[in-house]
Amino acid sequence: MWLWTWSFGELLKEDQVVFHYSEIPNFPQSTVPGHAGRLIFGNLNGKPCVCMQGRFHFYEGYPLWKVTFPVRVFRLMGVETLIVTNAAGGLNQDYKIGDIMVIMDHINMPGFAGQNPLIGPNEERFGPRFPPMSDAYDKDLRKLALGVGQELGYVEKMREGVYCSLGGPNFETIAECRMLNSLGADAVGMSTAPEVIVARHCGLRVLGMSLITNKATMDYNSEAIASHEEVLQAGKDSAKFLEKLVSLLVQRIEPNNNVR
Ligand SMILES: O=P(O)(O)O[C@@H]1C[C@H](O)[C@@H](CO)O1
Ligand SMILES: Nc1nc2[nH]cnc2c(=O)[nH]1
Q: CA-CA distance, 250 to 1, in Å (whole number)?
């Protein structure tokens, strides 16, 4: 199992082993405030997991093959299921700060401009040249996540929607938010789609969840200004809730027998 987010590493208390990214040959380094740059191995409710505390982004200057390099490393280590989380701006006007959007699909905007992590010679040992993406986010895991959230009493907070990945690092203009929403996106962020594309290419099962950390500005009369500080604060405010959710989810997830 691979957990990927800010704070879940603290959940892996049983048999914990921690590596700083700087200790791992060829691993990129985290440069974003709030991304600790540590790889944590351990057991969560008896299930072996590895957690990245900090991911890599295109806007940090890394090419997408490097942004997604850890996915293939973990695949080679025997990881079968990826739980990927992110901070995202809510485009859907019903969403509130602190909501969790289980990702049902994504729009990979940089892909439209020729930025895709699978560009280049295909590595056949990982997967096919032309992988499908219509089933990127596992239906059973999505159902499980929504059910577990509701079981924990987070009925109103649990959403399901479409995540739109952009290159960043700037937050969106009002016109961009309006356009993305009218294209069918419920939340917008700067990550996740590249990692999910590489994970699906190499046969990993994927569950994605976005924490809505801010409301995307859609109104020219609004005074709201997005900031990374607001994103980090919303992450801190929801840390306990997310930990409970992920902990119970991991307990409930059955082994993935379909991995290639
Ligand atoms: O790494 P994620 O996508 O969770 O983080 C988002 C996107 C930017 O890195 C940052 C903006 O505040 O949050
Ligand atoms: N692109 C983008 N990324 C985010 N990460 C957290 N909030 C946002 C947002 O509003 N836009």
A: 8
Q: What ranges in 7-124 are assigned the alpha helix state H?
A: 64-67, 69-76, 109-112
Size of the chain in residues = 260
**Axis-axis angle for helices 69-76, 193-201 (nearest 10):** 30
Q: For 81-108, write each residue's pLDDT tens digit.
A: 999 999 999 999 999 999 999 999 999 9
How do residues 168-222 score in pLDDT, each as one tens digit?
999 999 999 999 999 999 999 999 999 999 999 999 999 999 999 999 999 999 9
Q: Is 189 in the pocket of ligand 1 (CB under 6 A)?
A: yes
- Confirm or reject: Cβ of 235 under 6 Å from ligand 2: no
131-148 CB burial, b ≥16 within 10 A, e <16: beeeebbbeebbebbbeb
The answer, yes or no, to whether any atom of ligand 1 lies below 6 A from the CB of 32, is yes
- For a pLDDT cut of 90, what percent of the chain falls above it? 83
CB 210 within 8 A of CB 158: no
Distance of CA 93 to CAs 96, 148, 175, Å?
8, 24, 15
> Which phi-psi region, left, alpha or beta, contains residue 14 (left: φ > 0; alpha: ψ -120 to 50)?
beta
Average pLDDT over residues 31-58: 89
Half-sphere exposure (Cβ direction) of 59: Cα atoms closer than 13 Å: 12
